[in-house]
Design brief:
Elements (H helix, E strand, L loop, with lengths): L2 H52 L27 E6 L4 E4 L11 H7 L4 E7 L2 E12 L2 E10 L1 H49 L17 H49 L5 H32 L8 E4 H18 L3 E6 L4 E4 L1 H18 L5 E8 L5 E7 L22 H4 L8 H11 L3 E6 L5 E8 L19 E3 L7
Parallel strand pairs: 7-9, 11-13
Antiparallel strand pairs: 1-2, 1-5, 3-4, 4-5, 6-8, 9-10, 10-12, 11-12
Helix pairs in contact: 1-3, 4-5, 5-9, 6-7, 7-9
Length: about 500
């Protein structure tokens, strides 16, 4: 069912309920008001009758009994008014023509009226009449004066009010429903235009946006929110396309090299040594492809918010020591030493394999850029102002180019693209470090030391890592990182 029709029906039902409740309340109030007005009239008439009875003669003419009924010496005039005077035992002493010759009070009503005024409604000759009975005194004895008036006027007024409500109610409900439908249609016209515009936007036309109405209402806010969503989707699609393009570019080089080596190995007349060298080179390229595929898989899982951590209590100094020991042969081949300064009392809840992978990446980058006969310093200590543990790797190489620092943790970012690929780098090392730190609820930092060389820091909270996010962070490809530039003369 369309929203406009639902709103119209809902508004019509609401209007019907309001009219019904208001009509019943009005009729009830009208009935109370008319009865109150009629009771006031009866009260005034009863007081007038009481005064007349108090002034009546004490004795009746000879030969006329006290219970005589009919025309009573002209004390009551008119035939349309209900009036009676009753004795204490219920005998009719005086009565108007409209009241008839029988007592208007039952035994219980007569007993109550002898001590206090009583007001009630009864039926006389098929007509509803409102009666008021009050105690009075006539000729030195106690009597009961009864006055009444027809309720026809009040009933007619209530009937006319009910007729008006019943006749005017349905058209009012229908008019309210039609008005609600028209208002909803006018209000939802911009939504229809936005829907049609959204259906025209495709993955090849990501720059299109919705027209935001000038009404500054909820529809305009919805359009602005949709445009913001389209902006985020466009950025995400651009990142995905760039990621796929960069991944394809990185995979093409080792695949091309591997194909050439296999083709050379397949040529006739190759020596055993040449074949062995070709197979060894092909194995090296295969290992590089495997590492690149694993890195891409890790980054993709981080983008999807997948939980790739297996945290437990670890001592960071032991993880750093294992990483330093594994990197020592590569460092020694370049005449570089690695010094470890770690607080062995510092432990965190983290995934030791992922922390080790991050430290390995930092050490690999440092070894690649550290000059010969220099050292790489690895420190593990507690953060000064936060409950976090810090792993920092420093080298004494040329440092990061200042223009590269804002992009240091982006994927496929290289300080020297021409030489990094030749040296085996893929531009994913620092991006993976940032993803691992972000998955642990920490962050990374990169900068140049004033004394020369580069510093890269991983900060991991001492508490357990949080649940994986439902979507990638807006601040980077994966994880959370901060960049700081300390310029130095180059």
């Amino acid at each position: 069912m369309p929203l406009r029709l639902r709103l119209a029906l809902l508004f019509a039902l609401g209007t019907s309920a309001v009219i019904s409740v208001a009509g019943m309340a009005f009729l009830s109030q009208l009935n109370s008001s008319l009865n109150a007005a009629l009771d006031d009239t009866l009260r005034a008439r009863a007081e007038a009758v009481t005064v007349r009875l108090a002034a009546a003669q004490p004795a009746a003419p000879p030969g006329q009994s006290a219970a005589q009924q009919g025309n009573h010496e002209g004390q009551f005039t008119g035939t349309d008014e209900v009036r009676q005077v009753l004795a204490a035992d219920g005998a009719v002493l005086q009565s108007s023509e409209a009241a008839g010759s029988r007592s208007l009070l039952a035994a219980g009503q007569l007993s109550r009226a002898s001590s206090a005024p009583v007001t009630f409604t009864t039926v006389i000759e098929g007509e509803r009449v409102r009666l008021r009975a009050v105690p009075a005194s006539s000729a030195g004895r106690r009597v009961i004066a009864v006055v009444g008036a027809s309720t026809g006027i009040t009933e007619n007024a209530q009937q006319r009010a009910r007729t008006v409500i019943l006749v005017a109610g349905p058209p009012a409900v229908a008019l309210a429903g039609v008005g609600a439908w028209l208002l909803a249609r006018a209000a939802l016209l911009p939504v229809g235009r936005m829907r049609r515009r959204l259906t025209d936007i495709t993955e090849h036309d990501t720059g299109s946006r919705l027209n935001v109405p000038r009404s500054r209402d909820e529809i305009a806010a919805l359009a602005a929110a949709m445009n913001a969503l389209l902006d985020r989707l466009q950025r995400a699609l651009a990142r995905q396309r760039g990621f796929v393009a960069d991944a394809g570019h990185e995979l093409r080089t080792p695949l091309t090299t591997l194909k050439a080596e296999l083709e050379l190995a397949a040529r006739p007349g190759r020596s055993r040594q040449a074949l062995a060298a070709a197979v060894t080179a092909a194995a090296g390229d295969t290992d590089r492809l495997i590492r690149l595929a694993e890195d891409l898989l890790l980054l993709a899982r981080a983008d999807e918010g997948a939980d790739f951590l297996r945290p437990h209590q670890i001592v960071l100094a032991e993880v750093a020591q294992d990483a330093v020991r594994a990197a020592a042969p590569a460092a020694g081949a370049r005449a570089v030493t690695i010094a470890l300064n770690a607080d062995r009392r510092l432990s965190v809840i983290a995934d030791p394999d992922r922390i080790r992978q991050a430290v390995d990446n930092l050490l690999s980058n440092a070894i690649r850029h550290a000059p010969a006969d220099t050292s790489i310093e690895v420190t593990v200590h507690a953060a000064a102002q936060r409950p976090s543990a810090v792993i920092e790797v420093r080298d004494y190489g040329p440092g990061f180019p200042p223009g590269f620092l804002p992009h240091a943790f982006e994927r496929f970012a290289r300080a020297d693209p021409g030489r990094a690929r030749a040296g085996g780098g893929t531009g994913l090392g620092l991006a993976i470090v940032a993803s691992i730190a972000g998955a642990h609820g920490g962050h990374t930092w990169a900068g140049n030391d004033p004394g020369g060389g580069a510093r890269v820091r991983i900060e991991v909270p001492l508490i357990a890592p949080p649940a994986p996010p439902s979507k990638p962070s807006r601040r980077g490809w994966a994880g959370s990182h901060r960049l700081h530039i300390t310029r130095r003369a180059r």
